[in-house]
Amino acid sequence: VISTRSAKTTAGNPFFSEVLHAITAKAEEVGFDVILQTSRSTEDDLQKCESKIKQKLIKGIIMLSSPADESFFARLDKYNVPVVVIGKVEGDYTNVYSVDTDNYRDSITLTNALIESGHRNIACLHAPLDVHVSIDRVNGYKSSLQAHNIKMRDEWVIDGGYTHETALLASRKLLSQQPLPDAVFATDSLKLMSLYRVAAEKNISIPKQLAVVGYSNELLSFMLTPVPGGIDVPTQQLGEQSCNLLFNLIAGEKGLQNITVSTQ
Questions:
Q1: φ, ψ (nearest 5 deg) of residue 212
Q2: What is the pLDDT along the chain (264 residues), one digit of tens a residue?
Q3: What is the layout of strands, in order, in the sheet containing 183-186?
Q4: CA angle, corner 114, sides to 108 and 117, nearest 5?
Q5: Helix (H, G, I), strand (E, B) or coil at 93
Q6: Gap between the Cα atoms of 98 and 260, Å rounded
Q7: Are 170 and 158 in contact (CB under 8 A)?
Q8: Contact between 89 and 70 (Cβ < 8 Å)
Q9: Contacting residues for 155 by C-beta, under 8 A, at least 6 apart
Q10: Which among 73, 62, 75, 70 has a CA at the least distance from the CA of 250?
């Protein structure tokens, strides 16, 4: 089972389509069927998972994101079915495993790079803080500013939501402010795309007037000019390693509880 968040929160975000493709391709190689599960809420998602487990329809679960509220994991853990989460898992569970990048450290590195380039007025356009990945990326940004004695401006830390529309609204809000930031850290590819589009609307030159760094992907780096600075999220490796771990667990082998995928 691939357990996602609500379809509304994944629509248009290339991370989910790319990692899902990697998972289905790997499952085909070893003869596993994949069930894609979407849901209206966490409780709905849980009930669907529990129902499939009780009917013995599934042998394992891969979750495409990690909710900050880990009650989901606690409930699934008791069924003795392996659950592999693409994201961070903070609690101590028997059957829940994590495959993730080091989002906190990577975000410190990205923000440090802006500071080392001479920027001091650095904004952050982020996804909602109900998943571990968003929390870690925003905290990395904040830690970098704090380490360099740069005061964070609350009005420059903006939630861009999950969709193209909300990301554009947030980018317009950010790039309409006076004074403007001279750099922005974007926590996912939707936020990067929205910044480029709104900057073009407002005749703000990237990177001359606005430096942009963040989390991207190969296709976006190919399409955007100039190429955004930052990290291409290793979706292929995340998908493949989560599959490999899950298949080994299903086969009765032991696996590492937490696997960190390098972003190079």
A1: -130, 125
A2: 565 555 555 656 777 778 888 888 888 888 888 888 877 777 887 888 888 888 888 889 998 888 888 888 998 899 989 999 999 999 999 999 999 999 999 999 999 999 999 999 999 999 999 899 999 999 999 999 999 999 999 999 999 998 889 999 999 999 999 899 999 999 998 999 999 999 999 999 999 999 999 998 777 777 788 888 888 889 889 999 999 999 999 988 988 889 999 986
A3: 157-159, 122-126, 183-186, 211-216, 229-232
A4: 135
A5: coil
A6: 8
A7: yes
A8: yes
A9: 177
A10: 62
* Cα(255)–Cα(134) distance, integer angstroms: 26
Distance of CA 160 to the CA centre of its chain: 13
Q: CB within 8 A of 45, min separation 6: which ones?
A: 3, 5, 37, 39, 72
- List the structure tokens of 67: 């909710």
In whole angstroms, give the CA distance from residue 228 to residue 112. Answer: 16
Residue pair 147/115 in contact (Cβ under 8 Å)? The answer is no
CA distance linking residue 181 with residue 121, whole number of Å: 5
pTM of the model as a whole: 0.90
Task: Identify residue 6 by its one-letter amino acid code.
Answer: S
